[in-house]
Amino acid sequence: MWGQMQGKTKMEIAAAALSGAVGNLSETQKIGFVAYGHRKEGDCKDVEFMVDAATGTKKEVIEAVKGIKPLGKTPLAYSAAMVIDQLRAAKQKATIILITDGIESCDGNICEIVEEAKDEGIDFKLHIIGFGLKAEDTQQLRCAAEAGDGSYFSAENAENLGEILNVATASTVDKPANNFSVYAVKNGLPMDVYVKAYDIVGKREPILLRTYQDTGYFYLPPSTYNFEVAPLEGSDVDRITVRDIESLENVKGHQTITFDAGTLDVLVTNNGQGWDSMVKVIDPNGEVVATTRTYGVKKEVEVNPGLYKVAIQALKMEGLQTNTEIDSIAIEAAKTLPLVYDFKTGEFEIFTQIGGENIDCVVTIVEEQTGKNVAGSRTYLRGTKFLLNPGNYSVTSKPLGVHKDKAIQSFTIAIEQGETIRKTLTF
Percent of the chain, pLDDT > 90? Predict the structure, then answer.
């Protein structure tokens, strides 16, 4: 627990999160606190009942948590056995929440301890929170949580730990044992999602679950449900609904939710060079499901598999071909589709002068065939420059300021891809 995370020790983070969760409990809640490995180094029996569950208060637990200094071993199995022994002797039931940032270090097997206690008929629910543990180190802990009719939670940071503790303290031994599990995955990786289970037969209030990038467990009364599943991570993948999921009496159910997204790899160019553009991905209903700005480089957007239209708007260029829409872009699950679109421009630069000196003018450019005004700017005293799509244009220049009475001048230009036209107008 001395390991650092977010600029604090894990012990500091755990103490703050635990104090917050305990503070949320009712004043009448019976609560105890047990610590291990905090008094002696190398002692596999260093387990202390710091607050008696029969008489303990929230304030006593919070004070006890503040005084913990991690020193020694991680005797998970022995700690669990000691707590279970108390329940056996008192003939009481309880919800046990075990928080650990390490695996068993005293040759015990907490899963076996829990399984034997359950076989004996001792009534408890065991939740285990692995704080910053690697997935490959959690097998025994997951086994123990499942055997204890509880859940294993993986906490990765301070906020995560606080949320999980609130969930764990709300799922008590008085509530039915978990009978359904949900695992959400996208392209082979676990997702953190919210699940709302809607009973389409009994019409009860939706039952909620969060997976925390892991398998989530909850109790679903026997019925038929629709699951509304919303991703909580940075992704353009939409929430999905999985329908007609059955929860059966005395049967443990499971549902894997797949968000196998596809990726569109977009590169927008101008005359073959990377170009800054806005890109929108539009679904068949006309809704924009993803947007990105390219800034002249390749950009990826992630969307659900399906058929889309892609709208691209090139920035900092003028003409009739600065926007395009590409239909029937098929995005497949777990695949990347490259999309390259090249705009074309030429350059037009104009200077306006009297007696060899630059003057300020308004310049207006109209596409000749359609008569559409496509660009305009002032020359000030330095001239001005336009990037224009290839085509024929009418250019009008009107002097400003002290020269505003000078006659307007007009002319035509033909813009070709990659070419530069420079024009000096003399008034």
Answer: 59
State both tokens at 128. Answer: 């285990």
**Selection from 98, 19, 90 nearest residue 60 by Cα:** 19
Strand 277-282 and strand 207-210: the pairing is unpaired
**Quick one: how far is CA 5 from the chain centroid?**
20
Residue 2 is predicted with a pLDDT of: 47
372-378 sheet: strands from edge to edge: 372-378, 361-367, 391-399, 409-415
Contact 266/279 with Cβ under 8 angstroms?
A: yes
Distance from the Cα of residue 389 to its chain's centroid: 40
pLDDT in tens, 158-208: 677 878 888 888 778 888 888 999 999 887 888 889 899 999 999 888 998
* Exposed/middle/buried for residue 221 (C-beta within 10 Å: 0-12, 13-18, 19+): middle
Using an 8 Å Cβ cutoff, are 343 and 357 in contact? no
Report the C-alpha gap between 357 and 26 in whole angstroms: 83
Neighbouring C-beta atoms of residue 244, cutoff 10 Å? 9
pTM for the whole structure: 0.58
Q: Of 149-153, 240-244, 391-395, which one has max mean pLDDT?
A: 391-395
Distances from the Cα of 61 to the Cα of 15, 50, 256, angstroms: 10, 8, 38
Helices (H), 24-75: 58-66
DSSP assignment of 299-336, as one string?
EEEEE-SEEEEEEEEESS-BSS-SEEEEEEEEE-TT-E
Q: Name, in order, each residue with C-beta under 8 angstroms of 67's C-beta and a sequence gap of 6 or more.
A: none
- Strands 409-415 and 336-343 come out as unpaired
Q: Which residues of 163-181 are buried (b: 16+ CB within 10 A; e: fewer)?
A: bbbebbbebebeeeebbbb
**Does 154 score more than 50 pLDDT?**
yes
Give me the domains of the chain, ranges plus CATH numbers. 1-175 (3.40.50.410), 176-260 (2.60.40.1120), 262-343 (2.60.40.10), 346-426 (2.60.40.10)
Label residue 156 by pLDDT band (50, 70, 90). confident
CA atoms within 13 A on the CB side of 79: 29
pLDDT at 10 over 50: yes
Query: Does position 371 have pLDDT exceeding 50, yes or no?
Result: yes
Q: How far apart are the two ends of the chain, measured CA to CA in Å?
A: 80
